[in-house]
Amino acid sequence: MPAEPTPAGPSVDVDTTMLRIAADKLDSLFADAAKRLSDTDNAIASTGRGWPENSRSSFDRFAGYVDTRRVSLLTNIAGLSEALVAAAIAYETQDSANATDIATVTGTAHTPGVSA
Q: What highest taxon heads this organism's lineage (predicted)?
């Protein structure tokens, strides 16, 4: 017995241009955060010589913690930007493939990059 077709899910409209704009904004945030946090890291590091020897290891741990948090934040921002671009590409690729399939079934011409 042939499998019954499954009903289509709800229609989803994705504006890939907006995904790319959001990724660009995250890239700008990344650049700004990298600069500001680097300046802060440098300011913190420059105060290290003012700490007494018996407190130095605590200061070094604190400076390491701040550096680790900076790297983590920047890594997460970059990852979000990359994910938005990847999503835009995936949606565009799927949309183009669907348009090609529809054109094949209906015998109409399909121009890549133009939705059916």
A: Bacteria
Q: What is the dihedral of CA 96, 102, 107, 109, to 10 degrees?
A: -20
Q: 32 by DSSP, 3-state: which? A: helix
Cβ(98)–Cβ(116) under 8 Å? yes
pTM, to two decimals: 0.72
For the stretch 15-67, pLDDT in tens is 999 999 999 999 999 999 999 999 999 999 888 888 888 888 899 899 999 99
pLDDT grade, residue 8 (50/70/90)? Answer: low
User: Percent helix, strand, coil in the chain (nearest 5)?
Assistant: 75, 0, 25
Rounded Cα distance between 66 and 68, Å, is 5
